[in-house]
Amino acid sequence: MTTLAILTAAGSGTRLGRDVPKALVEVDGLPLVVHAARRLAGSGVVDALVVTSPPGMAGLVAGVLADDPLVGVPVRVVDGGATRQASVAAALAVAGPDDDVVLVHDAARPFAPAALVRRVVAAVRAGHRAVVPGVPVVDTIKSVSAALPAPAAGHGPASAVETVTGTPERAVLRAVQTPQGFDRALLARAHAEGAARAGADHLAATDDAGLVEALGEPVVVVPGDEAALKITTERDMHLAALYAGDAHH
Ligand code: CTP
Ligand code: MG
User: Does the predicted model carry a pTM greater than 0.80?
Assistant: First the structure.
């Protein structure tokens, strides 16, 4: 029985706004996808990687990973899809029957520590079929209704406003990260049903655990790590560089 890690790297990185896809942007002279792959491979609990590549760039992505001496597990590269959910589904389709545990991790979180990877896999192997790392939320989060036009008689620039519809108790909120870990059969069923809903006009899921929740199956949370922050904008590149050092902690 083996653990397969799906590493999503097919996004374009629109919000980062560089001239290469985000996963190929470098920190400390290495592409983000290589940093992420090093930590997955270095965890000692991942047997193989499937990486989703921007369409048409699979050869390039495979090359940078093959050239890295610290990515010491077999790597397959597949073309990603139009959404993250579709990319994960494409990678899941090449999982083998022996891959009983599947991790899904974002190249956009290149410095998720090996210890976090081990924590997630250990929880799945202990019998939890869907596991996410989570950290407490520091902001107060509000839900809002759709934006309404501003009243015409107001002073200052016209802008759309939203109406607050609720304030969930902060103590019970968690910001969830990747890698998320799953029993492969459960994740495959969650993606099959998620794809059917996406066809029926639902938005694509932003994480895999959400698809499992939609089945009514339990998802458990293990402690996350601030080093697993997601790189979205240029500001995050500065923060991420703080964690670029040790691939094995
Ligand atoms: N991803 C993917 N396939 C897609 C879209 C995203 O594999 N069609 C991956 C990204 O490469 C990233 C992760 O999903 O590792 C999280 O996505 P996000 O942070 O949104 O990255 P991008 O989609 O590349 O960025 P942006 O939304 O700013 O364009
Ligand atoms: Mg995106």
Answer: yes
